[in-house]
Amino acid sequence: MNYGGILAGGVGKRMGRSDLPKQFLMLGDKPILIHTVEQFLISGDIDKIIIAVPQNWRTYSEDLIKKYCPSEKIDVINGGITRNDTILNICNHIKEKYGSKSDDVIVTHDSVRPFITQRIIKDNVEACKIADAVDTVIPAYDTIVEAKDNDVISNIPVRDYMYLGQTPQSFKVDTFIKVYGSLSDEEKDILTDACKMFVIKEKKVKIINGESYNMKITTPYDLKMASLMLGVENKND
Amino acid sequence: MINEIIKLIEPKKLEINFEQVDLPKEDVIVKPTYMSICAADQRYYQGKRKKEVLEKKLPLTLIHECIGEVLYDPKGEYKMGDRVVLIPNTPYQEDNIVKENYRRSSKFRSSNYAGFMQNMVYMRRDRIISIGNINPEIGSMLELMSVAVNGIENFKEKAHERRNTLAIWGDGSVAYVTALVLRAYFPEAKITVLGLHREKLSYFSFVDDVKTVDEVDKNFKVDHAFECVGGGGAESAIDQMIDCIEPQGTINLLGVSEDPPHINTRMVLEKGLTILGNSRSGYDDFKKSVDLLQSEQIQDYVENIICDRVEINALKDIYTAFDSDLNNNFKTVMKWNL
Question: Which residues pair with B83 in a beta bridge?
């Protein structure tokens, strides 16, 4: 089975004065989260969808799903403290509720990237059959500059080999649990990106092409940009 | 959710647009998988339509020859992944006399309605037909075949019964598929194809004879003629057809001309000819085309005119496909990975 894991656990503060977590803000006629979930819902490559949300927003999220896209394919669960904890919660939920086979794949995706396409989901599932993990990336068109002391440039990597990470990131369910379980508490604190965790543990992480417009809506500016792209009014102002 | 739609905003300039869509209650969501480029799309892309037409129609989503896979059917009649052909004509009124493709209220994709260059297409369920195991690349030719079927069904209904000798003017894709469908409908008839290019005519292995138009002499006579030339060459082709056709035959027009050709009506009158106009196609024509393509032999013949295959992974690949299409003899198929 292939699972979609929607990471909606954040209660980010970057969105400014809004108290509503960004994944619940309206983009056009529906919340950002719903745009994202619907793409997974119609994907023939995804059998079940698990949405991980902040505990105190769980009932609210269930109401949204009921209102916009009720489906037996969807489960809403509590997210964790960190991103990787949230993915672990989703993996554990899969094992408890559905049992798990060694080739089960989980396609994890930021709930605030609603411009995800069917092609990206398909490519993730396909690539995960031949690799331990998959990361969705786009080429870096700007020069990447590294400044280890946040003051003076320490390195400028060759741009041809640089990519910008997006989501989805996909894993075999069992492998994720195993790799995450092998980390020390210290490593868990540092390795906030799930794919980085696989790289450190010398697993094969394949990259697939994302889209420049598969943007993450994190700031009020992003939301304005997304509304403009869709040609809709930003109703959150 | 959000759908991505590719629009031609001006000749040779494509742009991705985004549109918010809901899960449908009636319509079926189809993911396009293979598309082929029609001369009509190419004319828009190259900016070869009249200025006022371009001003009125652009921005426009191109492509009306397409097959795809079902992503979502709210009624569960189709399974996810079912292969279907997408019918570009959408009728909005019932009419017992006028076929759906001639009703002025109907809309046609990539003309006065969004074409298929989209991430996913919402289709009315009477606008898709399962194609089963037909090779999807060849399946993208179904619209072209259905146009020939529409013309030949019209011919069958209206032409007199002597159908021993049939001739097709033209050596392009429409001519090829029309000849192929005629062969299937009238296996006993003597079919001749007349064109300009010897190399292109050599593809027509399933007809009885091919000629270049300058090889036609006064002894060449046919019961009925099919014009698949269009453009600037239509006028001289129609002229030659009027000369070669036996009295009371039909001239079946399938070619599209931007400028209106002059027709020798004196000889049309003298010979009592019938001119039948044909354009586009409807559900029944697609159904018959799907049935015809069940034949592996016909699939092989259709496959022969796919000259270029271009995988579309990004916008730039669409430019490549349209450019390739200009330089090949017949059809360009796009494998739609967007």
Answer: B69
